[in-house]
Predict the 3D structure of the following.
Amino acid sequence: MSILNVLIPDFALILLGFVLYRRTGWGIDFWTGLEKLVYFILFPALLFYATARTPFDFDHSGRLLQTALLATAAGIAMGWLAKPLFKAPPMVFESAVQTAFRFNSYIALAVASRLAGDTGTSLMALIIGFAVPICNMAAVHALAHKKGGLGMALLKNPLLVATVCGVAFNLAGLHLPEVVSSTLSRLGNASIALGLITVGAGLRLTGAPRANGIAAYFIAVKLLLLPACAYLIGRALGLQALHLQIAVMVCALPTASSAYVLAARMGGDGPFVAYVVSAGTVLSVITLPLWLLLVR
């Protein structure tokens, strides 16, 4: 399957969400409810279904996880380098540093599914289960003086809970009944399309940022330097082709739109984070195909 055939359907759904949000009168309550449905019900169903039924090769999966987590750590370190490099307005660095390493799980699973079907989905779900808590902790750390409760938030994270339960179910040698498997499969399929539509609806491209330099730096780290780290680490660890694709791809993804929610809820500069996330998502239309082409 060509790179364009992998990515165009997903970016088309993001564009659809962008247009629908601006051309329909469905209201903010509709979009908020849709995002909650995806985040709390549909997406966890997909993660549990993928991890519960796909056998894991823990030798190769372990190296894949090692690559993804080492690259994520590098992204966190490069993000924090912005603090001495730029004189940012108050709360700009603290709010936006997360855009250097957090990734959009909806796009991740959509692309992984098109790359390698259920195998790609299960591998990506495994990365999400380990990387999301690390990214969340690093993101909250910069804003920690505003609000606490990180540990409880992680325990209640539906993506983390679904992945852990799915892996445990798998390792226990259990099997899903056909009716349950079919139901979860349909919920999972719905989550990918609706998740991508909500990504497009959340794009905010108006309003010039007040800190152009640091915004460009965070975007460059996320879309260029972080996947480069994953590529070098993966090659050094001898990842097989599919696992190298998955590792580089997850690091090349734009930042999750939930970064804006976190910044806004913890007293940070939400509008600036929304702009950086949106700009990175648009630019990833160019950078993501290039990275996938490099590692195909």
